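Researcher: Good morning. I'm working through a list of sequences from a screen, and I'd like to move beyond sequence-only analysis. For each chain I'm collecting a predicted structure so we can compare shapes side by side. This is the next one on the list. No need for commentary yet; just the structure.
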Amino acid sequence: MRNAEYLEILDAVSLSRLRRFGVEVDSPEVVLGRYLWNMHLGEALYPVLQALEIALRNHVSLSASQPRRWMSWRGLRATSLAASH
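Model: Good morning. Structure tokens for this chain:
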């Protein structure tokens, strides 16, 4: 890679962003390779994280709408909570 190309990419991405990829100690090819690998890793993980977030949100919503079910799962009874207050 020519230095001019690297400087153009550096201007577009920013030095502060590339610092965590070893911009001060490694060659431009290694730094950009790490940056691109990180970008692809994030892209690959996004659908999994999105599905996990939806499943968690749905489970919380279901549990909140059915408090007796949640309490029985935790070994509690609705009457025992009311009596303690």
